[in-house]
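ugh ok fine here u go
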Amino acid sequence: MPCARILAERGGPHLPLGPTLPMPRPITPPATLLVRLPNPLGDVVMATPLLRSLRVGLPDTRIIVAGNAPYEALLDGLDSFDRFLPLDRSAPHDQILGQAQADTALLLPNSWSSVLAARRAGIPRRIGRRNQMRQLLLQHSLPPIPGATPMTELYADFLPSVGLQREVLPAELVVTAPPQTPLPDAANLIGVAPGAAFGPSKSYPKELLLTALRELHEQQDLIPLWLGSPNERSMLEKYAQELSFDSVLPAANATGLGEAKALIATCRAILAMDNGARHMAAALKVPQVVIYGPTHPAWSAHALEHTTILRRDELDCLNCHHKICPKADHPCMNQIKPSDVADAVQRTVIVVVPE
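structure:
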């Protein structure tokens, strides 16, 4: 049986870049620009290059971002926008967006609800992608998504619509405070993020993951630091209990994304699924080993100079995007050997911190 192939390792394959676009036509800069963030955490991280380009290219424009409330802590410390509007249950989204008093909105989600909320908020110029006839409510519509393309590239397509040259900058996050979680002194911490909001098909089986972590502890004395959302807390506790050595769980009273950033920044590397922790680590320049199965790596192909991808690329069922695998043996995950995972992490750690 062939081993899992490492598709991308610290530089990886040369993925196709976005289209070469003509210089944008002169456009009067918006006075106040609203950027409606996407909903997945990883996509929000991949939207930070767009925010940086907007800040640099529109220095006199007031830039307001709106997104799920927890993302305020995720983006805390960035100077690429002026205000964060949390989209929570305090009021309908159109009322919250109306607080921006924006004249232009960049709608990064491809949903009808996002464009309807912007219209009801009275934002006169709405920019987004054509999808399911939503262009009827857009003043400027971008072409539909062409296929598996990095989200950093797709978000860069919005720049010409506000008169800026298309460019793709690196994703960025800032740690604004040290972690509240007590950490072992001089520990060799390896962040481990086993979950995926997408669905269980993205997750590496527990017993295989624990086997890989045991090997890493025996050979490199690496200590897992468990990472996940508050909803995954009980799962992380069960994983930790099944190890015969100590690992680190985030403090129960420190569950926000600010704490997650601080914890990730302390790690020598991150072992993750195709999930938000991988993107946060990439933006913090922490190396990652990422296990891919049902989703296409091209959607998240940024910061590959810090990324090692493990994937059974010979399988014909890849890129199915099923949330639950329809096959009894879930081959895209079960056929990745724990020894391959441990080996990839060890080589990543050795590159980062020479022995």
